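Run folding on both entries below.
>entry_1
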Amino acid sequence: MQRVLLGILTPSSNTVLEPVTSEMLKDVPEASAHFGRFAVTRIALSEGALAQFATPEVVKAAELLEHAKCQVIGWSGTSSSWLGFDSDIRLCKSIESSTSARACTSVLAINEILHKTGARRLGLVSPYSDEVQAAIIDNYQNAGYEIVAEQHSGLEDNYSFSEVTSSQLDSMIRGVAAAKPEAILIMCTNLRGAPLVHRLEEELGIPIYDSVATVVWKAMQLTGIDSRRLKGWGSLFREVV
């Protein structure tokens, strides 16, 4: 069996996406995730916080994953949702020119999924501050989407996002679901959203796209693995091809 090696770029203060990503891949024994960190501690719109996502720093981490011969390198982060989607397009081009891997990101995968499914009326859930949430909403609205409901936690410290409980996140998702969006986005890879998706989709009847899951979905596509093999993680893996 040929191994499939997935490189996943990770914020340094993140404690959620690594175990969740590995758990998602348990039904695909030939695939494994290998993580590379770069410094991210605070999510805000200040110059210092934005500088954490400078392309050279991210590419440097990607180049280390090249040593492990990863076929795909995915940025499991949501920075382009507030920086602007073009920042992820540029990042993918830089990774692919600096390594032999294909590149993908959580947010570009979300946008591809929305295009494939035709969902335009969205609910948005994040742990971010007022200003970051507003920037995300602006970017999606400028791209032609309508954010019909949103909930956010008002946090800036990246580590603190991992301490948002499953119960709190469940309540936030149900809160935006009341507006009957066509899809709900969980925008942060340091939230435990992915394990909630299957149950909440069954209860609410609304597709939920979690940013940890979306980069895994895209990585599966790029490596030719049938995403339907990832069972119990929601409609994304069953229905979006």
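>entry_2
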Amino acid sequence: MCGIMGFYCFSEKKPDKQKITKMFTLLESRGRDACGYAFIKDGNLIVHKLAQRSSMTATTYDWKSMELLSIMIAHTRMKTQGSEKNNANNHPLFNKEGLCIVHNGMIHNDREIFGKDKRDAEVDSEAILYLLSSKKKGNKIKDVFEKIEGSFAVASISAKEPDKLELLKHDNPVEMYYDEKDEILYFCSEREIMRESLNLKNVTKCGFNLGEGGFHFYTMENNHALIINRDGVESYKKYTPRRENWRMSPLYKRDELLVDCPYCFESTIYYDGRLNNRCEHCHQLLDAEDLYV
């Protein structure tokens, strides 16, 4: 489990720095091995990341002296694949063209995605950056949904398109608040982290619930991608993930079993005849002899 967060300003108004600092600090509950943040300044991608907790990073000179701009993405990491001591494995991940992502989730076929191509790190999230960076023609976001095996919640920015934010969701949460007054969109892995950081409370009048004081909550639907620009929502589309392609393909014949994971005890799908099965919740490899059907 990792955490992602960020904001997008549609006007000249910027978020309260103390509230963003609190949000970044609270996000470390989802990952304490490393953290980082990124933004576009004067057409250049700026990335800061360290193998330490976000609460520690929030005390550094770089964070304290940082002026909030129009867009920012951030990440807290709980390591799975790739040591945090190699900073290339920590988020945000980026390439030399200025494309940058943060990712919460776990990718199971990153080696298959890269094939014989050279990779800069060992972290599985790099497979998403690789697909979004592809020079091949076509819809890069569609490629992510159709080729990635695993789960992901992704936020992406690019120096080439400094006014654009992309959010992708497949089986991992992306929660959002829109500040109607200041015209700022906030996003995070957890709604309660935003509520506490932004000091949101339910407002009532004459016994009627008026919401949260001009803040409007949204949760992204699963298997969707949201693209935002200065005018607002550029697109919000549903995509078909790779797992659903398995189920629909007449050539991919497997018996599906609903089983209880012996590690987390959640119900998950087991594909009889598949070489490697993983729990959809804890992502542990499943051995047929240990399953509870």
